C-alpha cells in the first residue's frame, strides 16, 4: 500500500482540469456519507469470514462511471485495514481520513468513463452503537454474525459510496469454515443464491442482486439456520432462514410471507424483485427489524404487523428509495400505512379508527409522533423516530381522505411504477398526488407533513 497526503496534485482544480470527487453528497443529516464524482453500477464482494475469531478478509471490485474528470475520489469505510487498491489495473495511492478512504488513481479518470476499483482489506468489522443503545454494522450473534446497514452500518464491512442516492447491483461471495462438528455455517444474503460450493474445510456461497440496491440494504447473516425454500402462486422464489432457537414459533412466517407479498402486489403494484423471503435470527437484544432487500431481517420471530411493514418496504424504500435521508418518511410512512391497510383488510380496526387512535395518543405506537415534522428530522439520529413512521402514515391517510380511494390507490401504484428502482423526494410525491387528483394539496401537506405542532382536529 502506498500513501499520499491530502493536498492537491499539480494542476488539480484548475479551470477545466480534473478535480477530486466530493467527500459527501450534500445530505444535511449525514454530511459524511456518500461521495461525489462517480456513480456505482456494481459491487463484487468476495469475503472470507471466520465466526470463531470474527475476522474478515475482503476484496471489493467496484464498477462505476465517472460524472466528472476525477483526479481523486473517496470511498466510505469504517474501520478495517486496507491493504491494496488499484484503479483500472494500476496501483492507486491511498490516504485514510477516519471513515473516508481517499483514492488517487495513477491516471485521471475521465468524465463518463466506466472504471473499476479493486480494494483488498481485512480486520475485525465494527459494531456501531448509537447514543440510545441501538446496534448496527457488523453484529456478532450466538453462532455467527449479521450485517445491518441503516443508516451507516454498511460502511463497516465493505468500501463504497454509502448513500441511498447511489444504488447498484451486487454479487456477494462469502467463504466460511465448517464448525467443530464438520457442519458448514450457512450464509444468507440479498437476492438469489447462485452457487454453493463445498471446498472441503470451507463452503462458499454466491448471492446475486441484479436489481439496484442502496448500500444500507445490503446484508449478510452467518450462522446455523433452518432453510425453507418455496414459491408463491406466481412462481416467485421464497427463501426463509430461521435460527433453530426461534423455529418453534416461526411456522406462521413461512405461510405469511407469500400471502403478504400477494396482498401487497394487488395494493401497490407488481412485486419489484426476483425473489423474496425473510431471515429470523436469534438476536433478542436487537430492538428493531430491517427491510434488507428481498429478505427482511428479524432478531426474533416477528408479529404479523411487523412482517407486513418490512415486506411493504420492498416497494416503499427498497425499490423506490428516498434520495436524501430527510425523505425517509416516504419509506417509513408508507410502510406503516401498509400495516393500517392490512389491519383494515383483516377485519380489525379500519384506517379511520387507527388514525384517530394515533391522533388521540391511544395507539401504542403513537408516543412521540408530534416531536418534529416527518419530512424534517432535526438530526440523523432521529430518522427512525416516531414522527417519521406514525405521523408519516397519518399524512398518507389525509391524502387518501382528500383524493378518494380510487385516486389514492392509483397514486400508490403509479408511484411504485414510475420510480421503480429509482430515488425520490417529497416534492415528487406531492406533485404526483396533486397531478392525479387535480387538487391543490398545499394546505394538507403544510399542516400534516411540514407543520411543527399537532394540528387542531377538524
UniProtKB/TrEMBL annotation:
<comment type="similarity">
    <text>Belongs to the peptidase M1 family.</text>
</comment>
<keyword id="KW-0031">Aminopeptidase</keyword>
<feature type="domain" description="Aminopeptidase N-like N-terminal">
    <location>
        <begin position="42"/>
        <end position="217"/>
    </location>
</feature>
<keyword id="KW-0482">Metalloprotease</keyword>
<dbReference type="InterPro" id="IPR001930">
    <property type="entry name" value="Peptidase_M1"/>
</dbReference>
<dbReference type="InterPro" id="IPR042097">
    <property type="entry name" value="Aminopeptidase_N-like_N_sf"/>
</dbReference>
<protein>
    <recommendedName>
        <fullName>Aminopeptidase N</fullName>
        <ecNumber>3.4.11.2</ecNumber>
    </recommendedName>
</protein>
<dbReference type="InterPro" id="IPR027268">
    <property type="entry name" value="Peptidase_M4/M1_CTD_sf"/>
</dbReference>
<dbReference type="Pfam" id="PF01433">
    <property type="entry name" value="Peptidase_M1"/>
</dbReference>
<dbReference type="Pfam" id="PF17900">
    <property type="entry name" value="Peptidase_M1_N"/>
</dbReference>
<dbReference type="InterPro" id="IPR045357">
    <property type="entry name" value="Aminopeptidase_N-like_N"/>
</dbReference>
<feature type="domain" description="Peptidase M1 membrane alanine aminopeptidase">
    <location>
        <begin position="305"/>
        <end position="448"/>
    </location>
</feature>
<feature type="region of interest" description="Disordered">
    <location>
        <begin position="1"/>
        <end position="20"/>
    </location>
</feature>
<dbReference type="GO" id="GO:0004177">
    <property type="term" value="F:aminopeptidase activity"/>
</dbReference>
<keyword id="KW-0479">Metal-binding</keyword>
<dbReference type="InterPro" id="IPR014782">
    <property type="entry name" value="Peptidase_M1_dom"/>
</dbReference>
<keyword id="KW-0645">Protease</keyword>
<keyword id="KW-0378">Hydrolase</keyword>
<dbReference type="InterPro" id="IPR050344">
    <property type="entry name" value="Peptidase_M1_aminopeptidases"/>
</dbReference>
<keyword id="KW-0862">Zinc</keyword>
Amino acid at each position: 500500500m502506498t500513501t499520499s497526503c491530502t493536498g492537491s496534485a499539480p494542476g488539480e482544480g484548475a479551470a477545466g482540469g480534473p478535480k477530486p470527487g466530493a467527500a459527501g453528497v450534500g445530505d444535511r443529516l449525514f454530511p459524511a456519507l456518500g461521495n461525489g464524482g462517480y456513480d456505482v453500477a456494481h459491487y463484487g464482494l468476495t469475503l472470507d469470514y471466520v465466526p470463531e475469531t470474527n475476522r474478515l478478509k475482503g476484496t471489493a471490485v467496484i464498477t462505476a462511471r465517472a460524472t466528472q474528470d476525477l483526479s481523486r475520489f473517496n470511498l466510505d469505510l469504517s474501520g478495517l485495514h486496507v491493504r491494496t487498491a488499484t484503479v483500472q489495473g494500476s496501483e492507486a495511492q491511498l490516504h485514510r481520513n477516519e471513515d473516508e478512504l481517499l483514492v488517487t488513481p495513477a491516471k485521471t479518470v475521465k468524465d463518463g468513463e466506466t472504471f473499476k476499483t479493486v480494494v483488498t482489506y481485512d480486520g475485525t468489522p465494527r459494531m456501531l452503537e448509537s447514543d440510545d443503545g441501538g446496534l448496527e454494522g457488523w453484529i456478532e450473534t450466538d453462532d455467527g454474525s449479521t450485517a445491518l446497514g441503516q443508516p451507516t452500518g454498511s460502511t463497516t464491512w465493505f468500501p463504497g459510496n454509502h448513500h441511498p442516492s447511489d444504488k447498484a447491483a451486487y454479487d456477494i461471495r462469502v467463504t466460511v469454515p465448517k464448525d467443530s462438528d464438520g457442519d458448514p455455517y450457512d450464509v444468507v444474503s440479498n437476492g438469489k443464491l447462485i452457487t454453493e460450493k463445498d471446498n472441503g474445510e470451507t463452503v462458499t456461497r454466491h448471492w446475486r442482486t441484479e436489481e439496484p440496491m442502496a448500500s444500507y440494504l445490503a446484508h449478510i447473516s452467518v450462522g446455523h439456520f433452518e432453510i425453507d425454500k418455496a414459491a408463491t402462486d406466481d412462481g416467485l422464489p421464497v427463501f426463509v432462514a430461521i435460527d433453530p432457537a426461534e423455529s418453534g414459533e416461526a411456522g406462521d412466517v413461512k405461510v405469511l410471507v407469500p400471502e403478504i407479498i400477494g396482498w401487497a402486489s394487488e395494493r401497490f403494484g407488481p412485486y419489484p424483485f426476483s425473489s423474496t423471503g425473510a431471515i429470523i435470527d436469534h438476536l433478542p437484544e436487537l430492538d428493531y427489524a430491517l427491510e434488507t432487500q428481498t429478505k427482511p431481517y428479524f432478531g426474533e420471530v416477528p408479529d404479523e404487523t411487523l412482517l407486513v411493514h418490512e415486506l411493504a418496504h420492498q416497494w416503499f424504500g427498497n425499490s423506490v428509495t428516498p434520495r436524501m435521508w430527510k425523505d425517509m418518511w416516504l419509506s417509513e410512512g408508507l410502510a406503516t400505512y401498509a400495516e393500517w391497510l392490512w389491519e383494515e383488510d383483516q377485519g380489525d380496526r379500519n384506517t379511520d379508527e387507527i388514525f384517530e387512535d394515533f391522533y388521540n395518543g391511544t395507539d401504542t405506537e403513537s408516543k412521540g409522533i408530534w416531536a418534529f415534522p416527518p419530512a424534517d428530522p432535526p438530526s440523523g439520529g432521529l430518522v427512525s423516530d416516531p414522527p417519521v413512521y406514525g405521523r408519516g402514515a397519518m399524512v398518507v391517510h389525509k391524502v387518501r381522505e382528500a383524493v378518494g380511494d380510487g385516486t389514492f390507490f392509483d397514486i400508490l401504484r403509479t408511484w411504485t411504477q414510475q420510480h421503480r428502482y429509482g430515488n425520490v423526494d417529497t416534492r415528487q410525491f406531492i406533485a404526483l398526488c396533486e397531478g392525479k387528483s387535480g387538487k391543490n394539496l398545499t394546505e394538507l401537506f403544510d399542516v400534516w407533513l411540514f407543520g411543527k405542532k399537532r394540528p387542531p382536529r377538524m
